[in-house]
Design brief:
By secondary structure, the chain is α/β, with parallel strands linked by helices. The chain has 8 helices and 15 strands. It is globular.
Amino acid sequence: MDSMTEKQRYFSQPVERITGMDDTPERSLFRLTESGVYFREHRISAGHPGDPVEIVQITDVHFNYCDDIDLQNPELAYTKECRKWLADGASVGGIKNAMGFAKFADQIVITGDTLDYLSHGAMEMTKTYIWDVEPTAILAIGGHELTRQMQTGRPNETTLESRYADLQREWKHDVSYVSRVIRERVMVIAMDNDCGRYRPEQFEKLTADLAEARSKGYVVLLFQHEPIDTGRPEDACCPTLWECDGASYNFRHCIGSPERNDSETAKAVYRLITSSADVIRGIYCGHLHSAYYTEVIAGDTVIPQYVLEGNPYNGQVGHVMRILVE
């Protein structure tokens, strides 16, 4: 009788290294040769006894779909006419494959732009292919969830506040901030930072969660859509590990950079993050669609910051980040 579990069988398939070498695991990208899923790994040594806590990140799914309810809205009908990338739900294959990898983890986190734009059809896809598969999945939001206009050249016809409210009615957890403790060892925090913004209530919640993590010895993993400034001059032209939308990116013009006119709240959240390297062991983002590895200067140490490539690429095989806290 085959004594292998479903998880053991899944991860026994051959692995191909796409980029990187053994001595640079943070810059390595792999592919499972049978399922086709591309994956990266971040292993964190936390000195905890027992099996590793496993978190899987997916990002930038971009469900682009209008159903009959949406087509009664002239704004969405025009977006359907203009927006052709991944039209008619073409990204379903990619998320099904990525979720096939992620279902074995203790926690799934998706870091924004799950929706390509705010529509009933895209929300129904999110429920069917993500929350119905794993009801505990955490979905941080990006900018795409908050617009009904995509490549139309027109402004939204409703206020941002009303679109936040519409999204929140459909979301399974708070769209702004959510934290969860996994097996009393790892605290997962997901924050909305679309368009480079943070809000006062996020600062308050993050402050309280970091204090709890320190007192209880939790490893904190921070998930958000957009990356933050690394503080490293050389990262003004940081090369990608895997090119999709661009060969390099300026990580000195992200949230927290002195070059930006960020709000006082955004600056305060950035300072809080970069003064908390004792508990924050990784920052995980999307937004850029290509793969990057950076390190955020945090006092006399650094916090690893991984930017995961977008999920729909390479023929809808799926792209994931596997984080193991050991």
